[in-house]
Design brief:
about 450 residues, 17 strands, about 40% helix, about 15% strand, binds pyridoxal-5'-phosphate
């Protein structure tokens, strides 16, 4: 951090919080976000985080996509409190419970039926990577083939199977053994705007000498989150769906980050008018931040034998309660989608204005819905500095991309428009402050 920034009046001073000492002393070096946002967070209300010293931060991070409906949304909090109060089942493996039944009914009524989808539901262990592991295993089980296609800059989790399909070296280099049975191909736009990478994929499939083993499935994010907010074009997605259908390759859409309204509709693939064979959901599905994951599979793919893919925590009934309440509150009609579209327009317009005002930094704006990135192509180190500066000004915002070159806008979908504008104004000021420091230090 530059001297200029360090000398600025600091209302928040989170980095000097002595109450974090125990984390440094006892928590493993593997800890991550605590380093980016060194504050002792205590409460969360809507889009506001409050630390143990009663300092408030506006949240443009939303639990990395797990809090699309904000913190402690009252629409889910009360049903949850009522359920606990009446001694509702908390842990249920995959037993039938009334909480689970009500969630499945709501999911069918508000999500599947209105979209004409006929998926069956598989509840997996509660984290996103559990759902991805199940999806990959199922694709291999159904087809009898092992190879999976994933795409450059993808992120699917950090357990063995999902990590093999994840691009970033930082995660891949941790295993101590080779990651296998996945072939990485260029995502939309990876080879520049003039190359349609589906042509390349098709050529590999057609060429008996390409070295590509016929894949069981492709796995992709419709808008890549951790990889830098890369939205695939609808045309590319449609071509991929067409190619995979023709060649009997399963299509898995990992909607763990881009799903549950993040890109404007419940599923990220809806706007492209495609139907994947398998879908993974997690993060904001439970609505209040409790862990829950789900795999959606076309009925003809349901080759599992009973109990063949188990997990002690497949039945987080507290999550079923809040997930159902969220579906009833937000997805019974199109009002929420319209609200997301309104805020998306504000976000996109303001980011373009920021990019224009800081033309000298060579900024690029990418995204869809309320999932946007401000890309610092020329100065890869700036987003981390801006994120730090924003924290000092009371805004929590993270970075993403292979080199952390993208400032990632992931506000709650329920954020008030005034808060969205306020956060964007903090970002603008933070970029200005960091830019001044570059001018002073000549970085
Ligand atoms: N898939 C995607 C697209 C993700 O963004 C993530 C997490 O960020 C995961 C999978 C893994 O989820 P989890 O961290 O809950 O294992």
């Amino acid at each position: 951090m530059s001297k200029e920034i360090a000398a600025m009046p600091n209302k928040f001073s989170p980095a000097s919080d002595a109450s974090l000492a125990i984390f440094e002393r006892l928590e493993s070096e593997v800890r991550g976000y605590i380093r980016s946002f060194p504050a002792l967070f205590d409460r969360g209300v809507g889009s506001t985080l409050i630390d143990a010293h009663d300092r408030e931060y506006l949240d443009f991070f939303a639990g990395s996509g797990a809090l699309n409906y904000g913190h402690n949304n009252p629409a889910f909090k009360q049903p949850l409190l009522d359920y606990i109060e009446r001694e509702g089942i908390v842990h249920g493996l995959d037993l039938a419970t009334s909480a689970k039944k009500a969630f499945i009914e709501a999911f069918e009524r508000y999500i599947l039926k209105p979209r004409g989808l006929t998926y069956k539901l598989q509840f997996t262990g509660p984290t996103g990577t559990n759902a991805v592991e199940a999806a990959l295993k199922l694709a291999r089980l159904v087809t009898g083939m092992s190879n999976i296609i994933s795409f450059t800059n993808s992120f699917h989790g950090v357990s063995a199977g999902s990590l093999a399909a994840t691009g970033n070296k930082k995660y891949r280099s941790t295993t101590g053994y080779p990651l296998a049975h996945v072939t990485s191909l260029p995502y939309d736009g990876y080879l520049g705007p003039s190359v349609d990478t589906i042509d390349y994929f098709e050529k590999l499939l057609n060429d008996p000498s390409s070295g590509l083993d016929k894949p069981a499935a492709v796995i992709l994010e419709v808008v890549q989150g951790e990889g830098g907010i890369n939205p695939a074009s609808f045309q590319w997605l449609q071509r991929l769906r067409d190619l995979t259908s023709r060649r009997e390759i399963l299509m898995i859409v990992d909607d763990i980050q881009a799903g549950v309204g993040r890109t404007g509709k419940f599923f990220s693939f809806e706007a492209a008018d495609i139907v994947p064979d398998i879908v993974t959901l997690s993060k904001s599905l439970s609505a209040i931040g409790t862990p829950m994951s789900l795999v959606l599979l076309k009925p003809e793919l349901d080759v599992w034998s009973p109990g063949a893919h188990s997990g002690t925590f497949r039945g987080n009934n507290l999550a079923f309660i809040t997930a159902r309440a969220a579906l009833e509150t937000y997805w019974a009609d199109s009002k929420f989608e319209e609200e997301i579209a309104r805020k998306s327009a504000i976000l996109a317009e303001e980011l373009k204005s920021i990019a224009n005002d800081f033309r000298n930094l060579g900024l690029n704006v990418r995204g869809r819905g309320l999932m946007y990135g401000l890309v610092f192509q020329k100065h890869h180190s700036l987003p981390v500095q801006i994120s730090r500066e924003a924290l000092r000004r009371g805004l929590v915002i993270e970075t993403c991309g292979g080199r952390n070159e993208v400032l990632k806008f992931l506000a709650a979908l329920t954020i008030a428009e005034a808060d969205l504008r306020r956060g964007l104004s903090i970002v603008r000021d933070s970029i200005g402050a960091v830019q001044d420091s570059i001018c002073h230090t000549g970085l």
